[in-house]
Design a protein that fits this description.
135 residues, mainly alpha, 75% helix, globular
């Protein structure tokens, strides 16, 4: 049991960074698709200044600093709020169950980002480099 605890204690901070990087990269793709039609164009082009456009701006330009580990806590909190808003405005009216209302991804992103807002970016982040360099 001590070996498992030692392994978990050693790798837990790095897995936090990996969670942040992967979640941010996947999230950034949603914003890029809404704003730039990449990867894969949307069925309906995004209208500038529409609700979907604002979501794309938040997803893309919030995903970038999260990917790099800059301002992780406030950005992750903002993204968590966006996903809660997206769930309740778009998915919840279609039914209670997230699987049926197609809101499971929004709910999952919401709580992953809420966790990152509390836990920070981990050791593989620009913030961590800044902390090490400051006197």
């Amino acid at each position: 049991m001590a070996k498992v605890d030692s392994f978990c204690a050693k790798w837990s901070p790095y897995l936090l960074s990996i969670l942040r990087i992967v979640a941010a990269f996947l999230f950034l793709e949603h914003g890029a698709q809404k704003l730039f039609g990449f990867p894969g164009a949307r069925a309906n082009p995004t209208v500038t200044f529409s609700l979907i456009w604002f979501a794309g701006v938040i997803e893309f330009f919030g995903g970038l600093p999260l990917l790099l580990g800059i301002f992780t806590r406030p950005v992750a909190f903002l993204l968590s709020g966006e996903m809660a808003f997206a769930y309740f405005i778009s998915h919840a009216p279609k039914g209670f169950w997230p699987l049926l209302n197609r809101g499971e991804l929004a709910a999952l992103y919401c709580f992953v980002f809420l966790y990152l807002a509390a836990a920070g970016g981990g050791p593989w982040s620009i913030e961590n480099l800044w902390r090490r360099k400051s006197p």
